[in-house]
Specification:
The protein is α/β, with parallel strands linked by helices and 165 residues long. The chain is 54% helix and 13% strand. Strands 2-1-3-4-5 form a 5-stranded parallel β-sheet, with helices on both faces.
């Protein structure tokens, strides 16, 4: 018998707090593509956050909690940060990031890319921003920049070509 090949795992990074629908649209579409075309697993932080909130904070509005109870809000967000940090550090093989206005306005994406860089995980960034407008820190964490998702997909297909038996 052959040795079981490890299934790779992608992490989908990008704006959530300041993004429409927490960035669920592009993540859902790309998750399906990665799973179907590459056979990789995907960690989608929108789905993971919803699952965590439903289990531990049912019916809570994060925006309202942020305004009304900073201590509880900090505990909630701290738990989400740990979920994402551990996912990248322990289980992720590569990170795909959408760098747009919502990512630039928030802080989580910057942290996720920094953790990925520290742990030697490739970071593939899709952005329509001019390179001069991307923070140097983000560029420093990036393995490869793409102008559109189709370029990324072509790269991923070539880089992580699925082996057919």
């Amino acid at each position: 018998m052959g040795v079981e090949k490890k299934v790779l795992r992608a992490y989908l990074s990008g704006g959530m707090e300041h993004a429409p629908r927490a960035g669920a649209g592009w993540r859902s579409e790309l998750q399906k593509w990665i799973e179907n075309e590459l056979g990789h697993r995907v960690f989608n932080p929108v789905v993971a956050s919803e699952r965590f909130l439903t289990k531990h904070y049912p019916g809570i509005s994060q925006k309202r909690l942020k305004r009304t109870n900073l201590t509880d809000f900090q505990k909630l967000v701290s738990a989400l940060v740990m979920i994402d940090c551990l996912e990248i550090a322990r289980r992720t093989d590569y990170v795909v990031c959408l760098w747009d206005e919502s990512a630039a306005k928030g802080a989580g994406t910057k942290g996720e890319l920094t953790i990925a860089k520290y742990f030697g995980k490739p970071v593939y960034v899709v952005t329509t921003k001019r390179q001069a407008d991307i923070p140097g820190w983000i560029i420093g964490c990036t393995t490869k920049l793409f102008n559109e998702f189709d370029q990324l997909k072509n790269f991923l297909k070539a880089r992580y070509k699925r082996k057919v038996r």
